[in-house]
Amino acid sequence: MNRTSEQNGIVPVPPAQHILDALTGPVAVLDQTGAIIAVNKAWRTFGEANQAREASSVGVNYLDVCDRATGGDAACARAAAAGIRSVLAGTGSFSLEYPCHSPTEKRWFQLRASRLDHEGAIYAVVAHHDITDRILVEQEWQGLLARAHRHQEQLKALAATCTRIAAAGLPEIIFREITEQARLIVGTHWASTHTVPYVLWPENPVIVSVSDKYREFPTSVIAQSGTGVYTHVVQTGQPVRLTAAELSRLPDLQGVRNAVSDLLVIEGLLAVPITGVQGGLLGVLMLSDKDHGAFTPDDEAILVHLAQIAAVAAENAVQTRAERESRERLWTTHEHASVGIGETNEHGKFVTVNKGLSSITGYSRHELLALSLFDLIPPDDVETEKALYKRQIAGDLKTYSLERRFIRKDGASAWLQMSSTAVFNSDGRFHYSVRVIQDIDQRKRFEQRQALLVRELHHRVRNTLAVVEALASAMARTTSAQDFNRTFSSRLATLAKTQTLLAEDYWQTALLREMLLCELQPFHNKRHQRFTLEGPEVNLTADLAIPLSMALHELTANAARYGALSVRRGCVAATWDVVTTDGRRALHLQWRERNGPPVDTPTHHGFGVTLLERVLQTQCQAQVRLAFDPAGLQVEIELPLMMHRLLPDY
């Protein structure tokens, strides 16, 4: 007895066409020649919607259609045909992602071809899956990554710009650097900075930076083109970000386009005010002709940040200059004062002295800085001075003044008037004492002579009175009253003249290469190469860069004070390389000085050597070798380059 499939518990399978139609994506079955033998409903719908019904219907050779494709889709079509043929030839499967854009939307699909063997015949099942959502997400993600990378590079450039302008010192250099970096960081073909007229600003108030595109273009035209923008920003006090169309519609900016006519491309414009810390306008920074697309809010934020950097740096430069001039005036006054001026620490040791103090004491400046105040005071007076100074250090006696003897360098004793005023830190601790010392030896000698004269006068007055008394007494005994008056008066006049003659006789101060440049660039000389840098690009992590930059600063400062950079022909060579040993990378840095003063091995080490030998070893696990070669200092530093290191506590 025959049983049906339902009776055997087997669910009947729907016809193959129904199964194909149930699939949501377009699917077609090809025979071994590439002809379409079956398609599903989604395939037919897609073909009708995209005017490809005849090319994708049953009976059409799909491979021939792919081979005949032209235009921008030809390459993908041929790749699809080749992949399907490989599947029909024996490869298990094939996959290809390709764009399939319509006039109204962007689309991407994934073609998947699978081999089907049935009753000795070979077929290829071709399915197309819509992957548009995934591709759009990936593109958005790639765009975000690119934007993040660009922001990272811009932040690095901003940091480098801050470092460079911090050492600029002059507003003109600061504005020139900011203008150049604004153009490079944002990516435009021209930039300009229009500064507010000011006595310390550059003589030319407009600074221009251009790319090679405008290298031969008259900068005066660019400078003129920004006049209207400058006026607009000055009036509004706000940033301006405009497209070319918006620029042409603003009445107060019509002069921008009229001034440059067709000579200069102005595809949009971005301008921001350069505002000082106190709110005063210092200038306007503007950009135009961007490399790619219109200016964005991110571009505006970067330009605002650069303008803030320029404002702070320029005002600091002006303030620093004013402070320097003030210090110079103070130092000139201090140095040429007719009195001696010196500063003493808590131990009474001189830390600064002026020329007047050297003149008074007979010691040179260098000799005085090796002495203390107590070395100039006679032993009998030292304890008194120490007691007063102790009270001043404690804050009980802020100022005191006295006259005392002191000992000159030649051993002679002289008198001086000395006042001492204490200077305390913000936390109330004693910092130093200002000593104002005046040579009063001549005055003292005069006072001594004056005292002697007074004593002599008293003595002579007493003697004179005695003489007068004796004279009167004697005359009274021997002279008549009539002769006494005449003779006594004449003798008194003679005595007065003698006293007159006796009185008259008595009145009588990311990249290693960039770190090195920051230290050595101030010594650049066009005629004579003061330094050379040679080595690969090395990025240092912050915990390595900070102590190493301190070490480089100490090396440069030492070279400037005592080494190769202290003389005209001296030079410094810095070379480095990265070596890998047992999988560990290390920086090998060499510092060599040449043509400087002869080098002697120091008898004691200062802070610089301590930093090199101890701090680098402790903080960076570095090995440092110092060679005090008479021909020039040589330093070798081997610094492990670790990808991750905990920043040490300083």
Which features characterize this protein?
650 residues, alpha+beta, Beta-Lactamase, 5 domains, five-stranded antiparallel β-sheet, 20 strands, disordered C terminus
Overview of this structure, please?
The protein folds into five domains: 115 residues, Beta-Lactamase (2-Layer Sandwich), CATH 3.30.450; 175 residues, 2-Layer Sandwich (Beta-Lactamase), CATH 3.30.450; 103 residues, Beta-Lactamase; 60 residues; 129 residues, Heat Shock Protein 90 (2-Layer Sandwich). It has a five-stranded antiparallel sheet with strand order 2-1-5-4-3, with helices on both faces. It has a five-stranded antiparallel sheet with strand order 7-6-10-9-8, sandwiched between helices. Strands 12-11-15-14-13 form a five-stranded antiparallel sheet, sandwiched between helices. It is an alpha+beta fold and 650 residues long. The C terminus is likely disordered. The chain has 19 helices and 20 strands. GO terms for molecular function: ATP binding; photoreceptor activity; protein histidine kinase activity.
- Mean of residue pLDDT? 79
**Total count of helical runs of at least 4 residues:** 19
Under CATH, the homologous superfamily of the largest domain reads: GAF domain
Strand content: 15-25%
In whole angstroms, how far apart are the ends? Answer: 96 Å
**What's the arrangement of strands in the largest beta sheet?**
2-1-5-4-3
Weakly predicted, low-confidence segments: 493-509, 644-650
Domain module tally? 5
CATH class of the largest domain: Alpha Beta
- Biggest sheet architecture: 5 strands, antiparallel
Protein structure class: alpha+beta
The count of strands amounts to 20
Oligomer designation = single chain
Helix amount, in percent?
40-55%
CATH architecture of the largest domain: 2-Layer Sandwich
Pfam families: GAF, HWE_HK, PAS_4, PAS_9
EC number: 2.7.13.3
GO molecular function, one term: photoreceptor activity
Keywords: ATP-binding, Chromophore, Flavoprotein, FMN, Kinase, Nucleotide-binding, Phosphoprotein, Photoreceptor protein, Receptor, Repeat, Sensory transduction, Transferase, Virulence
